[in-house]
Hints:
Blueprint: H1 9-15, H2 20-23, H3 29-50, H4 56-78, E1 81-88, E2 91-97, E3 106-114, E4 119-121, E5 128-130, E6 140-146, E7 151-156, E8 162-164
Amino acid sequence: MLPVNIRDRRRDSRRGEGNVLANCRGFTLFELLIVLAVFGVLIGMAALNLRPLNSPLQTGTSQIMGFFKQARAKAIATTSAYKVEPASATRLITKYASSCSALTMTTDTDLTLDLPAGVSLTATDWSVCFNSRGVADGNITVTLTDSKAKTRTVEVFLGGGVRIQP
C-alpha cells in the first residue's frame, strides 16, 4: 500500500495555506495616500498647462518687444537697414534696404507679426528703422489696447533698446 500524507487541516489554516485570502496582500492606507498625492500633483500640473497663463494684451506686448529685438538683430546680422511698420492695426511687417534713407525697401515676408485676438495697435502711423549697427532712427512708443480697453506701451529708444513701460 502507498503511504498517504494526511495533513492536519487546523494547522494548515493557521498558516494560511488553505485560505486564499490570506495569501493576497492589499494596500496600506499610507500607500494609498502616497498614490493620491502623486495623482494630485500630476493633475495640478496638467491644469496649469491647460489654462492660459497670460492675458492677450500682455502676450501681445511681449511679442511686439521681441519682434523689435528680432528686427534689430536681423539688421545687425545682415548689415542691412530693417524697418518695422504696421500693415494694419493687428499686423506688423518688416522691410529691408541698404540704408534707412533708401527710397524703396523690400518686404521681408519671413519676419511678420500678427497680434493675438482682441489686441490691436492704437495708432498705425509710425515706423522705426534699425540701421546696420542696430541703432533706431527715432524714439517711438507703440501703444496696444485690448477688448477690455486696457492699454500697454512698448518704447523703442534711439540706441535700439526696447522696453515695456510700466
